[in-house]
Fold each of these.
Amino acid sequence: MIVTIVVLGLLLIQTIVIYNRLIRLRNNAREGWSGIDVQLKRRADLVPNLVTTVKGYANHEQQLLEDITKLRNQTIADQSIPNQAKTAAELGRSLQRLLVIAEAYPELKADKNFLKLQEQLSEIENTLQKSRRYYNGTVRELNIKIESFPSNLVAKIFSFEKFDFFALTDASDRAVPEINLN
């Protein structure tokens, strides 16, 4: 009788420990996503200023500017993590094309406002990369715990679900950029 009570007590304690660990990991993943979301919002807030600045110099790039504005609006809209990752990657590629186009306009490259916006965008992209790594690390830990025995039993009982990674959706994002210094 005492042995049964001790075993049940140990199982209850183990369940509580696992449950609390799953809660902590889930909250870390949510916090990680919040960090990505903040950086995506900062980038989206920067886009109208960047578009306006470039528009004054590069009027014939209207289609690219419209695409960037559309993607910016999609980024702000509520989306699932895979959709938001896809939209964010598309916006990032479009912004890179915009910066490449800006190279053709010496007056634009010298514009103080453009230079400041370009610097802010670079800072945001670096922070966004760090946020993605943190988020994916916390998601990895949570998903491992949800799939591993005996925590998978507790996760199933309390309906814990795996999170999606913030992943690159386009193979071209993984390609090494070609650099021509000539």
Amino acid sequence: MTDVTLSPDGDIITLDHGGATARFHAIWLRDNAWDPATRAPGNGQRLIALRDIDVGVHISAARLAGGQLQLTFAPEAREIAYDPDWLMAHRYDRDEVRAPGALPDGAEAWDAGLMENVPTGDFSAVRDHAEARRAWLAQIARYGFAKLTGGPVRDGALFDVVDLFGHVRPTNYGAKFEVRTEVNPTNLAYTGLGLQAHTDNPYRDPVPTVQVLYCLESTAEGGENMVVDGFAAARRLRTENPEWFDVLSGHCARFEYAGEAGVRLQSRRPMIELDPDGILRAVRFNNRSAAAITDVPFDVLPSYYAAYRRLGEIIDDPAMEVSFRLEPGESFLVDNTRVLHARKGYSGSGTRWFQGCYADMDGVRSTLAALETPRQEAAE
């Protein structure tokens, strides 16, 4: 059953459809019209600006015809058809109360229990088959990371991984960087030391939102890769101590990198970043790149450091960790705004050669959405 009710002033319609009820304002409906005069048929981009909609826009008539909702807008006297399913899928009339620290839509928090089923795809299948690629990208969107096995063992093979969803984002490290032991390295990542779980490049603005690490050689003992869900860590901190969560999300930290000539990267962002509606947006945690904290009030600083210390303890907790060893031709990708990665120490004997590069999550999400559209259309 579908039914529509128009308010006396024409400012609001109430739509009953598919067992749900939602209200919509006239200005929102006019702005989101899909008629050819409002949206380009080829790409869906708007052909009008908000200034082109009368400030006094209202609905003079509403009716259902042929499964469509027909609305007449005044004062322009234009009738526009709407798909009730589309409207209900995009309704904003909800009674949701989201506590700070809510997960983004589609994300699932995880801990060490995920080690029993590490998100993984096969390189050849993901490259050659749309459904395998969709499933692999869906795991990244859900968990913030995934492995890829069975790839080629050659210099630059990590670019083949990025080609599956997007484009490489070059940095001062180049289009790619080498991760193996060096003498007098410019970055601790290039030593055999174990590293605390961290997000990469927090000193950049904007930060690269994807990191790919690709294994080319691995005969050294140790060096297992580890990942930790930063969103799960932040939510655990909030459960334990909401005040500490608030202090880390309410004040900015500072990060910097000046490890090579001609480079001095700096940023100012909170360690736990929230959207205005409280949804987790990003976690930045990297002790090696942390600069002096100068944006926390004097009286709040002790609480800030207590919260900072506790977040680090949660991140270090083995119960939060998923670890795995990569063999040549294997790689993994992380959402660098969410998942912290680490490496256990490895011995000086044998070899260990990884290559890394950066890309962005908009490519992951775009490719995934494009692959999911045919599935949705087939289901309809």
